[in-house]
Each structure stands twice: as C-alpha cells, then as structure tokens.
Amino acid sequence: MDKFLRRKDSSSRTDDEPSTSVTKKPKEVSEKKYDEDYIKYGFSWCGDETAPRPQCIICGDQLSNESMVPSKLKRHLYSSHPSCANKDKQYFKRCLEQNKKQKKFMKSAVTVSEKALEASYHVAKLIALQKKPHTDGETLIKAACMEIVRLMLGPNEVKEVNKFSLSADTVKRRIHDMSSDILGTLIKKLLSAEKFALQINETTDIKNKAQLIAIVRFVEEDFIKEHYLFCKEVPERTTGEEIFRVTDDFFKICNIQWSNCIAVLHGWRCGNDGS
Ligand SMILES: [Zn+2]
Asked: Which residue stretches does the UniProt record annotate as biased composition, category Basic and acidic residues (predicted)?
C-alpha cells in the first residue's frame, strides 16, 4: 500500500501529466497514457496500448513513452514543425484522417504486389517442374488465367491478375532465385553435417555435350539424406582429371572441403538406372 501511495505521489508531481494518465494499477503508473487532447500538439499514438508511444502526425516520428507529456510534444511541434505550431485540433485531425487513408491504400497496394510476387514464383516452379519453355508463362499460363478469371469472376479481378509478371525473363529469374536458394540451403546442411559421400556420373545432352552430375549423401538429424548437388558441363574430354577439376571448382566456390568427403562413387548404383 505504501508503495502504491508513494508512486501515486511521485506521478502526481508531474505537472505535465494529464489526469487520465494516472492508472489504478500500481504497476502501470509509470507508463504514460495518451490523452485525446494531445492532438492539439500534432500527436497521435502508436504501439502497445499499455505503453503507447507518441507519434507525430506531421512527420511520423515516434517518440518514447516517457515523452508522452505536453511539454515534450509541444517542443517537437515548435522545433520541428514551426509552421504548424498555431494550427488547431481540427487541422491535425484532418491530417490524421488523411494519413490513415494513405496507409490503408499503401497496405492494400503492397499486399497485392506481394501476392503477385508469390504467385509468379509458384508458376515459375510449375514451369520448371513440367520442363516447359519459359515463354509459356506469358503466352499460355497468364493468358489462360486471365480468361478463366474474366469468365468466372469479372473484369476487375482480371486487372489484379494482370499485375503479376510472367515474362520469359521473369520466369528465368524466379527459377534461378529458387535454385540458388535451394543450393544455399543444401551447402549449409553439408557444412554442418561435416562428412559426406559423393556420387558422380556423366551423361551426354542433346547438343552432344558432356554433363557431369553430382549427388551427395550425408547425415542430417540422424537420417541419411541424398541430394542432387550440381550438373556442370565438362568442357574437355570426360577424363578423370577433367571430372575432378569441374568438381573441385564447384567445391572451391561453395567452400566445401575435400577432407570432409569420405567416399566418391563413380556411376549410378543402388537401384538407379544408367551405366
Ligand atoms: Zn514531427
């Protein structure tokens, strides 16, 4: 009880504090509350309701909860926005309303663009998995989506669908982003697993170029995992030296140590078809 009284005394000594700022619970006495009247200093509030922070309606600056007192709010208004110092409550209320509207508009714009971005990644993944040409994104998939949406939902929804890009370049970029991300995750796992086994084999592509494919096997959380590591063109003849050079180049770029490679298997075995 003493504690409560002492605290109340100390807070009541602050002349700047409005009557509403004194709360009943002793623990919250130290947190200053927002008073509707503070709008005349050009301030609204943001953050947690129990410890709100004053936010300037003009510049958006957020002050600390301790600054939730007329003298400090006034100081900010006079020093940072002298031209607004003599404006009345109604002026700041209008500004606040305008800010809210802009915020709402911005939020909806960002949400749509984020969704469009996510959608373009999903479609790029489908194109990659189905091994379809990148140009299918714009010429077939997007065109089909727009037709379906136009017939089933309406012209306004078509505008939304039209916001996401599926050009061949975009699809290529998205696939590249995803594959880099997958490789990055795999390298991290490999480095943390420390020991791994490597399986490599060559094949010839439709252009008659030799492609070296590598697969790694390692332990992750007590499970043996197998992952495709890379597919690289072997520029020269597929001799042992060339295969080592291509693999070594890849290891150097990814910071993988040969000393952690406990076994190298050449060719496909363990039920895989091929040579
Ligand atoms: Zn300001």
From this structure: 1-16
